[in-house]
Amino acid sequence: MNRLAKKLLKKIQDQSLKPKPHWLFILRDVLIWLLLSIWIILGSLASAMIIDYLRFNDWSLAWQFGNYLIIRSLPFFWLATLIAAILIIRRYFRRTRHGYRHSIVRITIDGLIISLLIGGLIAFSGLGKKIHQNLSQKPLYYQLTCQDKLWYQPSKGLLAGKIITVNSKSLQLSAPDNSVWLVTTDTAILKQANLIKLGQTIKLNGQITGDKVFQAKEIHSYQNSCGCQKCNCGQANSCQKQKMK
Amino acid sequence: MERFIAASDEELAADLNNCPENLAILINRYQAPLSRYIFRLSGLTKEDIEDILQLVFFKLYRNINNFDPELKFSTWLYRIAHNETISHHRRKMSRPNIDYNLDDNTFNSLAGSDWQQVANNAIWRTQLNQAIDSLPEKYRQVIILRYFEDLDYQTIAEIIQQPAGTVATFLNRGKQQLLKFLTKKYE
Prior knowledge:
The complex is a heterodimer. Chain A is built from 9 helices and 6 strands, in the order ααααααααββββββα. By secondary structure, chain A is α/β, with parallel strands linked by helices. Chain A has a 5-stranded mixed barrel with strand order 1-2-3-6-5. Chain A starts with a helix and ends with a helix. In chain B, helix 3 (about 20-40) crosses helix 5 and helix 7 (about 115-135) packs across helix 10 (about 165-185). Chain B is mainly α.
């Protein structure tokens, strides 16, 4: 028996060492796959939110304001989540038993495809929107994702709010900051039917013509992204206060 | 004892849980080839190589229940040796320092009638070693496994845990860089 063999066998005997049990390696594999599954789910959820954004974003309005609005309205939180999911899936898939046999490019593409497929199912089933509405009740999530304030920038020609009075040529709007705007609508183009009615939440583009006076150019419906039906748009805090009552 | 000596690597490994003495037979079989491989990969001293070998066989024993039967035992063992050598190399943060001096056998053979041929071969071997040493780690390891250990692409892929396509790419790029290095040297 050579010197190295004697040394090792003595160490094994002296320290009563045994091989690690098989279940330990199985547990490690299970944990890696569990981590991968969690990130596949998160990646799919992010994909669903991004798909919903692409479907429901007001592109006609966004294009009018050019790159500024398009970029500002991107769902950065969900894009970052999707990228993080793909990177983590890529890293940990290669640590699975046979994951190293696949190229990084292949793993990245496959991970993206799986996320988009499952995300598509979530989005088109309407589940994505329900999840977003439920999550929007959490102040932190609302801060990170809801873009109500984006549509309320009067100096840039964007106004949003709830209709509180209506007549043939004008209406009054209760804006997210509780201010009241007089909006002249005689030359405005309605982007959808039945938009001008009491209690309806709308967004418009146009220009300021006086103190809290706005000349509307186009009137659009407003998808209330915080999902709160009782309060004004963009007022997540009041949603929370109402819930606490 | 003859029965154990004749047993395959996989049979010895399968019984390692109950029979640690099988480790001695595996060490006898693989100590020399692994020493050569570790030296080619890293250029470490004899003492460092022994330290790595001790770790390799220790890890083999402790992780035997993680052996994937889809692999050949030798492939799995080379993988452990490869990973330990790379880790050791990175810990030391040093480039390989292979001794390029001509050995005694080469000097002795210079006394023979074809001393010019022997001298040319020795010089060529030294320059080739220098060229291999100049390669980035990822190319150097596949060149050594392919041309010095004489392993096929699939086995190399299993040892370094990369896709077979990546092995082919590394080999190709490694050879191109070797050619560039040697061409420059002779300009």
